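Cast an eye over this sequence plus C-alpha cells and explain the fold to me:
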Amino acid sequence: MLLRLLGRLDEAYEVANEAVRQARFTGDREQLLGARIRRAQVLQYQGKTDEAVVELTGCVDEARGREWTGLEAFAVQSRGKVHFDAGDYENALADMTAAVFLREKLGASPAEIQAALTAVAVVQSALEAQRASAWAPGSGSGSESRSEPNDEGGGDHA
C-alpha cells in the first residue's frame, strides 16, 4: 500500500507478484488467493481494469467454491471498486451489494456492515447521476467526478 501511495505502481506490482510466487511455494491456497486479490488491486491502481476484473472474477469463483466467505467478500468488494473506477456502476452495485450480504453472513461488526452499506450508497448515487445525465437534454459525456466507495472493512479478509 505504501508503494501505491508513493506512486510507485510498477514496483508495487513486482512486490505483489513476488507475494503470489511465495504463497504458491507454501502450498497454502487461502494465502495464495489473498495475494492474488491484492495483486489485482495493484492492476486496478495501474489502470488495468480489464485485467483486474478477470483476476478478481477468478478469485471470487475460487473463494466461493472453497467456501472461504471472508476472501469471497474481499474479492467481490475489490471487483466492485474496479467496476466503479471503470464507470460500470451496474456491476459495481451488484458486487458492493453482494459484499454486504457476505459480510453479514460472516457476522461482521456493525461498523464493517455500515462501511459496506456506505459503499453501496456511493455507487447507487453515482449510478443515479449517470442515468440522469444520460436522459438530460444536451447532456455531455456524463463524466462527473466520482468519489471512491468506502474502503473500510476490506482489511478483514482472512
Remarks:
- Confidence is low (pLDDT under 50) at residues 141-146, 152-158.
- The helical segments are 2-5, 9-26, 29-45, 49-66, 69-85, 89-106, 110-135.
- The two ends are 17 Å apart (CA to CA).
- Residues 59 and 69 are 12 Å apart (CA to CA).
